[in-house]
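Sharing a chain and its predicted structure for anyone who wants a worked example. Both blocks are below, sequence first, tokens second.
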Amino acid sequence: MKTIEIIREIVSNLSDEEFELINRAENDYWELDTRVSRNGYKRLVYHLTKAGLTVNEWWAWVDD
């Protein structure tokens, strides 16, 4: 796992479009509809992987 400083740098270097895609996927992940939540999680993993992050690293940044 990367340090929080590296995670912050990666997130700050995301384009607005990439950041918005990750946020939409995360919002869908928290949806109560199982299908929407599952697809949101898959999209979250996909977009974070493209950015060089894992879901756990994303949660660490969110909690920071």
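Comments welcome. Helices lie at 4-12, 16-29, 34-51, 55-63.
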